[in-house]
Structure formats: C-alpha cells, structure tokens
User: What shape does this take?
Amino acid sequence: MSSEQFSVVILAAGKGTRMRSARPKVLHPLAGRPLLSHVLDTALALKPTAVYVVYGHGGTNVVAAHETYPVRWVEQPEQLGTGHAVRCAVPEVPDDHRVLVLYGDVPLVRPDTLQPLLDTRGVALLTTVLDDPTGYGRILRSGDGVTGIVEEKDAAPEQRAVREVNTGLLAAPAGPLKAWLVDLQSDNAQREYYLTDIVAMAVAGEVPVVGVPADEPAEVQGVNDLVQLAEVERLWQRRAAERLMRSGLHLIQPDRFQLRGELIHGSDCSVDADVICQGRVELGHRVTLGPGVLLRNARVEDDAVVDAYSIIDTAVVGPGAQVGPFARLRPGTTLERGAKVGNFVETKAVRLGPGSKANHLTYLGDTEVGAGVNIGAGTITCNYDGAGKHRTRIEDDAFIGSGTELVAPVTVGRGATIGAGTTLTRDAPPGTLTLERTRQRTVEGWRRPGAVSTRQAGDDDPTPSESS
Ligand code: UD1
Ligand code: CA
Assistant: This one.
C-alpha cells in the first residue's frame, strides 16, 4: 500500500453522441443503476481524500441522480478534450497528492485493478492488449518504459499495428500533472486537449512512465453505444451470477438471471430462468423461484415457493408460503406461514394469516386476513369508493364463497361463511352464514330474440317484458 494521499478525478462530461439518446451517457443504467454510480462506488472503495466528478452535458440531472455521494462536482462547460477535463478538476488538489483519473463510462474496473496505479511512482497507465485495437490510443514503448500514447486518428500505420492500448485510466503526481496540463496543445486531428499528451511531457521531464496491464480486457471495456452497454451488462451479470453460484445459489440458467440490486440468500435455493431481482432481495433457505419471477425489495422466507411469472413487489412471503403462477403481490403485502396466493390474484397492503388461501382470480386490497381463511375464486375487496380507501377485515377460519364482493369498510367475523356471489355491504357476524342474492327463477318457454321457435306457431309469446 502506498502511504501517499490521493484524489480521484472521474471524467463524465462527454456527450455520448453514439448512444443516440437524450439521456446523458453516464445515466444509462447498468444492472439497474447509472453507469456513473458504479464508478463512484469503485472510487470510494479505494478510500481517497476526495473524489471530483467532471460533468458537462445534461449535468444537472447527473448531479441530482448522485446527490447522496460524498463527491465534489466540477463543471466542464465545453468538452475540449480529456486533458481539459482533468484541468478543470485539479486546481483544488494538493500538489503532494497522486491523482487517479477514471472514466464515468468505464464501469467494470475493480479497486484491486486500480491499486497498482496508486502504488507506482511517476505516471502509471492502465493498459490492455486487444485483438482489435481500433479506436484506442496506442501505447508506444521503448525498452521497459512507455514513451508516449498516440491516438488512432493521429497514428502512423506502424503505430496502428500496436495492440497494447490506453484504457484512459491513469495515475500521476498532482504537482507535475498540473504543470503538464497547462502546457497541453490542441494541434491534433481532433483539435482537442489530449490527456494522453502528458506522457511525452513526463518522459521529457524524466518522470518515469509505467504501463500497468489489466488482467482482463473486459474489465476496462468502455461504453460508447448501446451495443457496448449491452456487452458490459452481460459481463456484469456474469460476474454477479458466478459470485452467487459460488456462494451456493443454484441458478439453473445463469445467463438468464438478472440482478439489479442486492441479493442475499440462504442455502439450497433454486432459481429458474429469467428471474429478475431488483432493489434489496432476501431469500431464506430452500426457496424455489420459478421462471420469469420478478422480485423487487422483497423477502421470501424458508421453504417458500414462488411459481412462474409472479411479481413480488415490496412484500414478504412467509415460511412455506406458496405464490403463483401469475400472481402479483404489491407493496405492503405479507403472507404468513403456509399462506397461498394462486393464479391471477393481486394483493396490495394485505396481511394473509397463517395457512390462509386465495387461490384464484382475486383482488385483495387494504385487507387484514386472519388464520385458516379460505377466499373463493373471483373474490374482490371493493376498497376504493372513488374518494378514499377503506379497510376489510376477515377474521380467523372464515370462508368466503366464490364471486363475493366485500364493500369496505366491512368485517367478516371469526368462522363466518359468506355465500357465493354475495355483495357484502354490512359486517357478517361470527359463526353464521351470510348471503345476499336475488331469488333464482326460471322463465319457462322464453325465446331468445331471433331464435327459431321450437314451439308451434300461434302459441302465446311468453317473453318477459322486463328483459333487456
Ligand atoms: C480516450 C483516450 C484514448 C483511450 C480511450 C479509451 C485521450 C485523448 N484518448 O479516447 O487514448 O484509448 O479514451 O477509451 O484521452 N470526457 C470529458 N470531457 C471531454 C472529453 C472527454 O469528460 O472534454 C470524458 C468522456 O465523457 C469519457 C472520457 O472522458 O468518459 C473519455 O473520452 P472519449 O471522448 O471517449 O475519449 P476517446 O476519444 O475514446
Ligand atoms: Ca470512449
């Protein structure tokens, strides 16, 4: 470890034209978070004295999206090149610091890969060797040291053949760096102030320049367009999936698992294809997630099963509970031990007590359900009267017949039975049968309009006058 203090400068002012998007490039999401957040996390993990972020295009949104980060924001009003960008940030950096330059659009680099740049004296460049170096600055070497970096657009043919490239990430001593930045010229193919020109200046000033190769080219992959964004996403997801599998999570199809947040899990959980985890997700032991399940800020406890294509959003699935297929648990739902929510059931702000079931085609909102309750198919809590929300209470061991409408506020007492098809507008007393239906009748000899009569012509026409 170096004892030298250091500051980090993150370049994030580029327009990102090739993204073909109105959104600033560094706000495009990687694993559900802005590209820049990943770089900020990496920078802060190194424990620098300060982090400066150079922003430009769409800057206010970039700053607003990261307001909780302890960093200093520096505006680069015009994008005059990487050298100019660093020059905007360094005046506040003490001369005896090292400066580590990172890019807001190179999000996969790990702290361990950057540490050697901080531990090296002089200028340290992170490099990598590519089969196809097109578009990158080439590293020019003589003997052990680096003598310069030449941009693709300025390179002679034999320089273009060099496969060791500049990742753009580097560290340099702040004092000399400030002097070099002041001397930069923009007499190049792009009329920009190139940060890379400091290498030749360091060499001229006999400051050592070292190229530190990154082990994994994928780690220093930048994002310039949506194709590269997808590549970086895949790399990030592969890393996450490998980490989870090594910690004992059984991902049946690791290439078809998406983590967009934080996942903690117990042992012997099984995750089928196309599961998406967003925000903070917790799985207990022996949890089974079927294909296409979406979990967002959710906790699924021991032995629970969430079957195919269910959504668990800001909700808790208790031990041994069963959900889905095709269920939607909305915010504020808690299923207690052994509860069941089946297909085409939606819940919101609901507590479903131990062993209670809503197995088919049901909406429960703002509802407290006790233990051992059976909620029949097609039950709906009418919790909204157009102005306010009202609560429904269903006590232990109640039985709600199919097709019931519970018009809140309303309570179904302990052990009560509600007959199928009831529209319940007043409380149902405990231990009783409550039903609300019109008496069934059959109209003999009724004919559908236009239907050919099966009766003799001349018979009385019995069509009821109140039919509609
Ligand atoms: C740069 C390097 C090149 C390297 C490549 C790696 C220079 C001159 N060239 O080229 O050697 O191989 O990165 O990807 O440094 N930015 C600003 N302000 C500016 C210009 C750029 O903040 O005025 C930021 C961009 O947002 C981006 C980073 O700096 O995050 C790199 O800029 P970019 O234009 O992509 O540099 P390249 O031309 O690709
Ligand atoms: Ca680039």
